[in-house]
Amino acid sequence: MKNEQNNFDLPENKILHLFINNPYEGVFYIDENRIIRYINESVVKYNNLTREEIVGHSIDHKFKNLKFDVENIDRVIKTQTYEPLKYVKIDRTSFIASKSPVYRDEKFVGVFCRYISIDAKDVGRILNENWVDILSGFQMKDIMLNVSQTIMELNSYKDEFNKSNKALLGIENIIGNTPIMIELKKRILKVSQSPSTVLITGESGTGKELFAQAIHFHGDRSSHPFVKVNCAAIPENLLESELFGYEEGAFTGARKAGKMGKFELANQGTIFLDEIGDMPLIMQAKLLRVLQEKVIERLGSEKTIPVDVRVITATNKNLPALVEKGTFREDLYYRINVINLHAPPLRERKQDILKLANYFVLELNKNLNLSIVGITSKAQKLLVDYDWPGNIRELKNVLESAMNFSLGSMLDMDAFQYLHNLHSISKKSCDSQMLKTRLEETEKEQLISVLEKCDGNRKKAASLLNLSKSTLYRLMVKHDLL
Fold first, then answer.
1. Per CATH, which fold does 2-154 belong to?
2. What angle do CA 212, 217, 222 make, to 5 degrees?
3. HSE of 100 in the Cβ direction (CA atoms, 13 Å)?
4. How many beta carbons lie within 10 A of that of residue 353, not counting itself?
């Protein structure tokens, strides 16, 4: 070690200066009274403010270009415990941040905060900076490689957030002017201002995810992540690590540095647990603890991580019946059902069918590169008279099928021939088995058509049908298409 120090031609205070003032990290010291006492050069340059404009002010001060994640800082001041690297979003900028309590003579005197922007376009160039070469005697290149890998991994999480948040839609994107939909939109706006848990019930294909997005979009968490989890699509043995993350070595094949779970990714935002009725009992108990204590434990760790997440759930199942049956926890049901919203089936809002149909025709024209201009009056009547057991999802799929086979610029009865056959059967006979058989045949025909269109590519077919890959696989097994 002595030889290494002899090769080192910079004084210790210069090394410390290089560490603290590296251009990729904002550093703050905030005292126990929430007053900013120190900032590094990166903070000054990044925010285009002078040191005098920042130092000496409270973190609540309204700076021109600077904001803090006040809740996280206050939590460290209150608990006087270290907060490890975590994702935070301040306004529109993403960071990884850590906060350390500072002590003097065993007395707590403040918080040391570090922020690394993960909006930097070329994190790897850090490795070529002169100051890293200078510090090579202390194996800093290895350390910076780890930092670079960590930031690149966090950038992949950021990409997921961006994709998710770009897709978010508000109530103006919820199509429907029937009384039941007008009332539902009012309720969505109302509950968006509340932190309480929400349970959205309704049949498959009724738009439950869109309603969840609207709640998040209009709430005060809208600038933070909206993370969706389909509880039915994730195998039971993977669900815990998917929700809560895992530590290095938690299981065979685990990432070396571990992985953040969906709850950590959704911190300060919203997590949407779709198909909650399919969650295994053992996971229901773990979810209940998160809702009660607002902490999670990664798989393979005993350390608790605080999370600030709004939870929205959805199901097409009868949860009270599952509670009675013993397959869904009663205490969890009451915990998630603080606010209940019901997504009405399409047959209860028939006046909205043509509005939805016209919207989908315009959307599908773009996706399919077609120029369908409308639907004939007879075909419109067919759409309105049909009961739509698959709801909005079925309507969209039926329209896409019709548009693919349409020979003209208008969708007529010929384009909806199989739907016309279904409607005729249901009108002429009350024989539910006959209708079920025809529906099964239609479902199989639709699967075959889409799989052929996608050249057997299941991923593309599932996306086209708006199904999960596991659901598509189940349907293919059901219809002997494997």
1. Beta-Lactamase (3.30.450)
2. 120
3. 8
4. 20
What residue has token string 């007529």?
Answer: 412
Residue in this structure with the two tokens 């739907």, named with its chain if needed: 419
- Residue-by-residue DSSP string for 37-97: EEE-HHHHHHHT--HHHHTTSBTTS--SS----HHHHHHHHHH---EEEEEEEETTEEEEE
Residue 442, phi then psi, degrees to nearest 5: -65, -40
Which residues are CB-contacts of 198 (< 8 A; sequence separation ≥ 6)?
191, 212, 215, 311, 312, 313, 336, 338, 339, 340, 341
Residues 6+ apart with CB under 8 A from 307: 263, 264, 266, 267, 290, 294, 295, 296
> What's residue 300's pLDDT?
85
In this structure, whether the domain defined by 167-339 belongs to CATH 3.40.50.300 is answered with: yes
- Determine the Cα–Cα distance for residues 448 and 467; give it in Å rounded to an integer: 15
DSSP string, 247-274: -TTSSTT--TT-B--HHHHTTTSEEEEE
The fold adopted by the segment(s) 346-478 is: Helicase, Ruva Protein; domain 3 (1.10.8)
Classify 312 as helix, strand or coil. Answer: strand
Q: Give tens-digit pLDDT for 244-301.
A: 988 876 776 666 667 888 999 898 899 999 999 999 999 999 999 999 999 999 988 8
* Three-state DSSP state, 287: helix
Determine contact, residues 290/263, Cβ cutoff 8 Å: yes
- Decide: 62 and 140 in contact? Cβ < 8 Å: no
Tokens coding 96: 């990884």
Place of tokens 């693919």: 404
With the CA atoms of 36, 40, 43 and 46 taken in that order, what torsion angle do they form, in degrees rounded to the nearest 10?
170
Specify the pTM.
0.60
pLDDT digits (tens, 9 = 90+) for 91-129: 767 778 889 998 888 889 999 998 887 654 434 433 344
Q: 378-402: buried (b, 16+ CB within 10 Å) or exposed (e) per residue? A: ebbebbeebebebbbbbbbbbbbbb
